[in-house]
Structure formats: C-alpha cells, structure tokens
Write a structure and sequence with these properties.
By secondary structure, the protein is α+β, with helices and mostly antiparallel strands. The chain has four helices and six strands, in the order E-H-E-E-H-E-H-E-E-H. The chain has a six-stranded mixed beta sheet with strand order 1-6-5-4-2-3.
C-alpha cells in the first residue's frame, strides 16, 4: 500500500481515474448524498464505469465498484487488471466496502487505485492486501475439516 502522485502512474491508470471521476457525477444518492464513481480496466484494454445507486432500503444499494464490474461482465469481459474508486471524504480515502472487496475477488487479484476528485494523491493497494482472508470455494481451500 502506498500513496502515489497521479502524474506518476501509467497513462491507462490515469485514464481509469479520470473515467471514475466523470461517472461519479451520475451517482444516484438522495439519502447519503455521497457520490462514488468506479472504473475497471480489463485485460483487453476496455474500460467500464459505474456509480453508486442507492435505495431507501440501504441493503439494496448498488456500490459503484459492483456496478462497473457488472457492466463489464454483462458485456462479455471478466478478466481485470485494475479498478479505480473515486469519492470524497475530507480526511480519508474511500476504499471499497467489504462486500465489494469480496465481489471483486471473484475475478482475481487486482490493483485498486483510490482517489478524490481533482486531487493528485492516489492510494494504491492490491486486493489481496485489502482482503487477506476472502471467502473461497471450499474445494480450493487448504484448511478443510477432516
């Protein structure tokens, strides 16, 4: 995990953060007023974006990350390199929630780039560091009960 300057990142990652920032404006968040944008970079270079879509029953809210991933998968893309998340909290970076981390892990380990709109600092971490003990298919685990 490190904080890097946006300009020091690969151009494809800079673009990913720009796209996440743009889609953030489309967030439907009448209850929290907390806009989140996300963009995923696929192995083939395609970028898919998503924003949070709230519901009065908070448990039915769709997070930006899952929105972007779902758009990519429904378009036939399921191999990912990176995900960007853009939201604004004055003193913190907004990392993916636990449900999103688990959702993202379904498609493999990726780098996560977390930023605030218009700011130069980017938190960079890998999913395996953000979610070290993810749920896995029982057939793949090494600690099965005997």
């Amino acid at each position: 995990m490190s904080v890097q300057k946006l300009a020091s990142l690969d151009k494809s990652i800079q673009n990913l953060i720009v796209e996440a920032t743009k889609v953030r404006a489309s967030a439907y968040c009448p209850y929290s007023n907390f806009q989140v944008g996300s963009a995923v970079l696929c192995e083939d270079g395609a970028v898919y974006t998503g924003c949070n879509v709230e519901n009065v029953s908070y448990s039915l809210t769709i997070c930006a990350e899952r929105s972007a991933y779902t758009k990519a998968v429904s378009s036939g893309n399921s191999k990912f390199i990176a995900v960007a998340v853009v939201a604004y909290q004055e003193n913190y970076f907004t990392t993916p929630c636990g449900a999103c981390r688990q959702f993202i892990s379904e498609f493999g380990n990726v780098n996560i780039y977390v930023s605030k709109p218009g700011e130069e600092d980017v938190l960079v971490l890998s999913l395996d560091k953000a979610l070290p003990y993810r749920f896995e298919n029982i057939k793949d685990t090494h600690c099965m009960l005997e």
